[in-house]
Each structure stands twice: as C-alpha cells, then as structure tokens.
Amino acid sequence: MDHSQLSKCILAGQGKVPADIVIRNVGLLDVMTGAVTVTDIAIVGDRIVGTHASYRGDIEIDGSGRFAAPGFIDTHLHIESSLVTPLEFDRCVLPHGVTTVLCDPHEIANVLGAPGIKYFLDSAERAIMDIRVNLSSCVPATSFETSGAQLEIDDLLPFRSHSKVVGLAEVMNYPGVLNLDPGIMAKLLAFQDGHMDGHAPLVRGTALNGYMAAGIRTDHEATSADEAREKLAKGMAILIREGSVSKDLDALAEILDENTSSFVALCTDDRNPLDIAEEGHLDALIRRLIAKGRPLHHVYRAASHSAARIFGLKDRGLIGPGWRADIVLLDSLEECTVSDVFAGGKRVTPELFAARELVPAVGLTSMKAKPVTADAFICAPKPGQNQTPVIGVKPGLILTFREEATLEVSQNGLMPDLERDVIKVAVIERHGKNGNIGRSFVTGFGLKKGAIASSVGHDSHNITVVGADDDDMALAVNRLIEMGGGFAVAEDGKITADLALPIAGLMSEKPFETIATDLEHLRNAAKSLDCVLPEPFLQVAFLALPVIPHLKMTDRGLFDVDKFDFVN
Q1: CATH number of 210's domain
Q2: pTM of the full predicted structure?
Q3: Percentage of residues in the chain with pLDDT exceeding 90?
Q4: Is residue 238 part of a domain?
C-alpha cells in the first residue's frame, strides 16, 4: 500500500471522501460480543475503513435484511481431495464464504515433490481466495510405503519466505517426533519461530506432552470430546473437522462454547465437489453447529477470528476499520445462507474468476505402474493357517480397526467371504520405483461383486483397489493406469464408471460441476456392487494411510499403526 492509498483509507474512514464500496444498512455480526448492529460498511481497496456510521461510496450495495460476518477460514485441508485444480477449487468454494484456506499440498508433493508445491504456490498467487500454504512436513508420511518423492528440510527451505507460506504442515510422523528422528528434528528446528500444524490421532498423556513440547500448537485429528478437552487443557488449539470421510463434528460439537471458542477453529481436511455441491463447505459446518445448540456468535468466531489468531493471520477475522475486507453477506445467520462474498475487497462474481491467469498443469506423466493380471491379487495363506487379519472400515471414520476372519483356501489362495462382508484389498506401487503389491482383506464395504480402484491413496498415492472378484480388480486397476490416474468401478468384466485425474493422478482440469456429475455416476456404480459406504472412493483412498490407526494397507504389506510396524 502506498501513501496515496493509505491516505484515502484514513480519509474515507472519516467520511471525508467516498469509499470504493459501501455495503449499506446491513446487520453487522460482532463475533466477539454477539451484537448485531445495522450499519454501513465502507471498503477502500482490500481494507475495511468504516463501520457503525453512514458512508458514501463509488459503488453502493443494499444490505437491507441481510447480515455481515467475517470471511470464513478453513484451517486445514488438502485441495487435491476436491479433485480439481487450486484455481477451480477457488471458484467452487469461495462462493460459500470461504475467503481464506490453509492448505497442505502434501498429496501432490508425495507424487511430484517440490514441483508440486511450486504449482500450488503459483496457483495461490493467481487465486481470488487467499490460499495459504503450509509446507509438507512428512513426504513420505512414513518409511513403510513407497512414495513418488521425498522432501527433506533443504527442499522446503527455498519456499519458507514465500508470501503465501504460513509454516510447517501437519506433522504426521508423531512417532518420529517422540523418538527424535533426525529428519523430523531438522524440520522442527527450522520452524521453531513459525507455525507448526499437528496431526496426533489418539495421542494422549505424556506422549502428547512430548509431541507438543516440540512447539506444535494445533490438531485436527481429535475424534472424541474427551481427547479434544485434554488437548485444549494443554494449550493445543482444536480444529473441528468435517470432511467427506472424516466426520468428527457430531463428536466434538460440545467442546465449542463461550469458554473455548477462541481456541477452536473449523476445517474440512478432505472434501469432494459432490459433497460441496450437495451440502456446502464451511457454511455447512457452521449451520450444523448452530443447529446443535452451539452459541451462534461463538461458532462464527471459530470460523473466522479464532482461526486467524491461531494461525497468525493478524489482518483478518473481524469486520472493523483497518481489517482485511473479507466479508460474507448472509440471508440468515442461523442457516448460514450465503448471498454475497467479498474477498480482499473484491465482490465475488463469475467475471472475477474468468479474469484470472491460468497455471499450466503438472504431473501429467506421473502414472508409471505396469498393467496387472488377476493373479496379482492372490493372497497366499500362511502355512497351516487360514485365519487372517482384516481391516475394519466404518462410515465417516478414517480410523480403521483390526478384525480377524477365517477364510476358505482354494488354488487361488485365501478367498473372500462375501456373506461376512470380507473382500480383498490391494495397493499397487505406481511411481515406477519397485512394482510392489501389498495384499490383504477388508470389511465394511458391503461389496457382493466387482471392484473399486483409486489412484488417490493417502498419502503416497499408489493405486488402491478393493474387490470381490480378482478379474474385476485387475480391470479397474488397468483402467486407472490407462487414464493416468483417477477412479474406476468394474463389474462383471466391464468398466461401469470412471473419472480421469491426470494431474499427478489426483486432480482433473475439468470444471467442478462436471466432476460432481462424474462422482454421482461413480457413486451409483459403487452402489450397484452393493457398496454400503456413502463416500466409497475417499474411503478406499484412506485405507493406505499408515499414520492413522489402527490397521492399514501399503504397497509393502499390511501395517499395524499402533505398533508402527508390519503385521507378521
């Protein structure tokens, strides 16, 4: 901001010169006190310059009968899980009132490394939404799987001073923190003066103390109120998460009250465009929390001011003179019905999105897996034993559970038990490193036939496939390889639905509306296999996440997260 612009802000705030934009006669929600005041809001450039008074503006917008709240801040998410590019995510989510996001590009970083982070930063510079980036701390997430890239501290430091970088992204390798892993220690030391985001599922007691002693201040992995309260008591800010798979809002809603709202924020983590189209984004979380009896202005505070303070964004989170002009106009506070959005003083319109400079796609040749046959999915029994561990999946949880099954043995090894909902799961290495295939069994999908495959496989993004039939599993996997990544459903020797994600095997260049339609087709195809999960594709993706308890599948084999070692 130059002298002339600052002078205009000061003079317009006094009403001595017209503002650029004035929102007239709007009900301004004070997220600190809960008061609603009918007033004008004056904006110059990207800054609010006046409230609680009457103003003139070059552009005047009637806010009568509407309410103004600070722009919403999603404190932790992976844009890649939206299956669209960062600029398309911008167009998809900003109209829902989300003016700032703190993203961790570790999905694309696990495939492409530093060039993936650069792609996100280049996109962030061109977006209307303020996309902030936390630098991926765990690429790969663990040493127990094969990723496409590896990022050490020297790979991250060149990005440290970028204007869009906030700090260090979720430190998922919590055993590495507790055991003083040299690579993790180097990253922790380098970011001691910046924000370090946490990832500590079920970490409690002195282990939590040790983890927090590293300087980690936030966590989005609490799945119970009791766990969240312990973390709050120890000074850790809690990010209430409600994504397409990880649904923790119902369990955590009770922790958000008058005493805690300054230390609680909201996040989505992973949310696909179909859910955004059907339910919304942070606006959906806000209306659900209010409906559950949480104090209204404290919910809006958590979604804005608290989020900004927790992550050190000092210029936003309130509607007042001198604050960044991120403003959401709502027809109803209780229902959080968004009617207009201002991002950095700009009114969000289709024309605003159309004027952005595009960023060339990256990672279009990242799929290096070789085609497979049905034999690739034979699960050999242990000598003299037909009992095997089984991954237990529950809807709405990325936590998985260890179960056991006694399975019949044929010439093709251990067989699925469809009556007891035990089907096969396999992870195929796709980065061209070693061709590994890990094989086991999973329950909770409900499949009676066919197969579902995905190249979105958190966090290393190998190909994960579940199925009741080996031939269909091979067919679905080979379709993904042919497309350069994506999702595929196979049934009775045919591909019944697919979606190509050629950008690093994670994202499409298509509009989010098209992706939402394609996902609807995929969901219907999965239902035709008798799949009982509401979000089967992201649920498949999280089967390969070995930093979330309890039992996971990697390309190297079945992994016990509690022991942090492979199942023997």
Answers
A1: 3.20.20.140
A2: 0.95
A3: 93
A4: yes
